[in-house]
Description:
Blueprint: E1 3-4, E2 8-13, H1 15-18, H2 28-31, H3 36-47, E3 54-59, H4 65-70, H5 72-75, E4 83-87, H6 90-97, H7 107-124, E5 129-133, H8 145-168, E6 172-174, H9 176-183, H10 189-192, H11 201-219, E7 227-228
Parallel strand pairs: 2-3, 2-4, 4-5, 5-6
Antiparallel strand pairs: 1-7
Helix pairs in contact: 3-11, 6-8, 7-8
Amino acid sequence: MTIPYGAHFVFIGDSITHGLRNDKELNPAFKLGAGFVNHIASKLWLENPGAVLVFTNRGICGNTVLELGARWEADALSLSPDVLTVLIGVNDNNQRHLKPGKPSTSPTEYGVVLEKLLCRARQHNPSMLIVVVEPFLLSSVALVGQKLEAALEEMTARGQEARRCCEQCGGVFVPMQSAFADACLQAPPEFWSYDGIHPTAAGFALITQEWFKAVAPNVEHASEDNVYA
């Protein structure tokens, strides 16, 4: 990948993006967490030494799309990212199936909110590369039988909304539900996610792989000016 010199990558979402980051650490690597954000940054830093790439992790554990919307200006737009990666929707789904009574959104409501957020980002910076990672769900001890079927059906609907919103704003979509489904043909779900929601090391590596697969063709020729190759 050829990256514009000084490009700023912002990742925003819930605990999957948060990845146990520690903002108090002096080492920038620890501020990115131990998940896919760190994996992506590490690979890009290694392949583009001297390009002064900047990476910011703005994942907050437990966030729904509504909570993301409340901090969108401060944690996304105000940072003026060149590449903005969004992964949200897992908690919206889980609260409807695992924590009934908590505020949540239907797939349609989720899509309405997400579309507004992405459109605001596009208006803020027409040249921004917007990346939407599909929210996903694997089987777990908390969701079995009909509960799992209902949760997966709703998550599929959220994924469809995420794709629609991404296409609406001219972004790049990373299809993770199908990627995890294919991966589960090679190893059981618990190999990829210890609870059906939060990825293991292998799960984070899979997200990283799919992110690069989707994003690389779009970044490679993103800018011919002021490029560090």
